[in-house]
Amino acid sequence: MVVVSEATALPARVSTAGRHSSVVVSDDRQWARHLCGFVRSGLDRGEQVQYFADTTAPERVLRTLADAGIDATAAVTRGQLAVPVAAQTYLAGAAFDPDAMIGLWHDAVDAAFARGHRGLRVIGEMSWGVRGAVGADRLLEYELRLHQEVFERLPLTAWCLYDRRLLPDAYVNLLAGAHLTHRGDPVAEPTLHVAPLADRVGFLMSGSAGYDTRDAVAAVAAAVRGTSAPRVEMDLTALRHLDAASLAVLADAAAGRPGGAGLHVRQPPPSLERLLELFPALGSVMEVVGR
Amino acid sequence: MTTSVRSSDEAARREAFFHPALFYGTENEYLDGLGAFVRGALDDGQSVLVAVPGVRLPLLQDALADDRERVTWVDMTEAGRNPGRILSMLQEFADRQEAATPVSIVGEPIWVGRTPAETWEATRHEALINLAFEGRRASILCPYDTALPEDVLAQAYRTHPVVGAPGDYRASSRYADPHEVCRDCDVPLPEPADAVVVPFGEQDLASTRDEADRWAAAAGLSPARRTDWLLAVSEGVSNSVRHGGGSGTLRMWRAGGGLVAEISDRGRLDDPLTGRRRPDPYAPTGGRGVWIMHQLCDLVEIRATARELVLRLHMRAD
């Protein structure tokens, strides 16, 4: 669980519209356009801007900004712009750890305010996710948790940059789909689309869930297990099919929630209700609503 | 040659597994045989399950008069429509009793009118009872109508260690090893005339599920039955990817007013009891998928060879 710093916690829900976006690019021109627009906007607003590079050399990022007329050197000098390398910062530990990452965001926003900036905006290159880094299999869980555990609480704007040239389409479709806002190249609907809910604590699953989507279901289950909210909802309105293994994984996560708070399942597909007839024990940890 | 097991031994047989076939030709023989078995068990204070074709239930209930309330009654034509799910039901009933308490069950899985395909799977079920209940304090009486075909009655002698009638149970000289019987039940499956063929690997599982659903909808399967169909096919194709060499072939066709899905792969069925006991729903292994298929389908035909595992899932339209 993440403890929210009083200094940066917002007194009420802040608008999260557009603050956590997936950005999908497939060429350098698109990349530069998104990069420059994002950085320029942040500098103009007095926010601190950080670009976490993975495969792109930091010098190239700065050169691209300068070529677009942005005085990147001055921004770096006054501490408003930084281009760290992911492998030397948040990926430098033994494993990528969503819990630690979420804590880091709270620290980072605190630090930005302490230095007099009016907010923090970040771009992260996400291509490291397919290179076998330890903990990279938890990236989807992390993306799903960010909305509730970070963006609902902090004045942070973050774009997750997915480069089609470096990542398989199915991976991009799944990960980009886990954001509430999307920019750049359109992405196809994955077999199983998972995302946080915009207006409630919970998650959406749509499409078809089976053995082939077990990793996505496991990520949702981990996010369910991790959330401390008393009520968590699963919106399954657009889910066509759910197999027994997926249901068991979700039920296990629901059973493991603090205080046994259970899971509210909205408009499940007929397959879920049929499976609950076969396995009544799984139904004891979830409540079907909306049907 | 047969060895007589007289009623004087019946107290002793309650201490061990007892699985007789009772052959009956008339209604009176049926009522006398089953009535004696059930009353004896009730007199011993045992829990009793009677699972026979529903048409026979009123006869038995009337014959037992006030004792009927002490018996769990099941219409076998519904609960045992697919023979592959009967054993799970029987074990669940036995498991509900205290561990040391003997149970008595009447199970009639084969009746006049069963199709040959159902009868082979019911015969397999009869053989597997001997493996599933080995060493347990359980008596399972299986009535056989002598109007059944000779070859079906002959199999009853192979699947039951004991045959006969109350007071005259004899060891069956033709009793066979259950594994051998199961192998003999693997008769060749008839080839469909016109099947839709869908080869699949892990990357095709989603499209295979969608194709199975679309095909069943086009074939006229009702939405409720399509839910069962899709769940069963999904479990089958997933098993192929997980346990059957990573890929398989789905074939679908119409047959006898219903639909058939056949899933074949390079898997093996090392334990013939797979899927015949209610699984822990949380356990990723332990036959959950096969058990689900048995529960949802009207018939599951299983053919396991050294090179191939074939599951044929039958779904009636109604």
From TrEMBL, chain A:
<feature type="domain" description="MEDS">
    <location>
        <begin position="19"/>
        <end position="179"/>
    </location>
</feature>
<dbReference type="Pfam" id="PF14417">
    <property type="entry name" value="MEDS"/>
</dbReference>
<dbReference type="InterPro" id="IPR036513">
    <property type="entry name" value="STAS_dom_sf"/>
</dbReference>
<protein>
    <recommendedName>
        <fullName>MEDS domain-containing protein</fullName>
    </recommendedName>
</protein>
<dbReference type="InterPro" id="IPR025847">
    <property type="entry name" value="MEDS_domain"/>
</dbReference>
TrEMBL record, chain B:
<keyword id="KW-0808">Transferase</keyword>
<dbReference type="InterPro" id="IPR025847">
    <property type="entry name" value="MEDS_domain"/>
</dbReference>
<dbReference type="Pfam" id="PF13581">
    <property type="entry name" value="HATPase_c_2"/>
</dbReference>
<dbReference type="InterPro" id="IPR003594">
    <property type="entry name" value="HATPase_dom"/>
</dbReference>
<dbReference type="InterPro" id="IPR050267">
    <property type="entry name" value="Anti-sigma-factor_SerPK"/>
</dbReference>
<dbReference type="InterPro" id="IPR036890">
    <property type="entry name" value="HATPase_C_sf"/>
</dbReference>
<keyword id="KW-0723">Serine/threonine-protein kinase</keyword>
<dbReference type="InterPro" id="IPR047718">
    <property type="entry name" value="RsbA-like_anti_sig"/>
</dbReference>
<dbReference type="GO" id="GO:0004674">
    <property type="term" value="F:protein serine/threonine kinase activity"/>
</dbReference>
<keyword id="KW-0418">Kinase</keyword>
<dbReference type="Pfam" id="PF14417">
    <property type="entry name" value="MEDS"/>
</dbReference>
<protein>
    <submittedName>
        <fullName>Anti-sigma regulatory factor</fullName>
    </submittedName>
</protein>
<feature type="domain" description="MEDS">
    <location>
        <begin position="19"/>
        <end position="161"/>
    </location>
</feature>
<feature type="domain" description="Histidine kinase/HSP90-like ATPase">
    <location>
        <begin position="204"/>
        <end position="313"/>
    </location>
</feature>
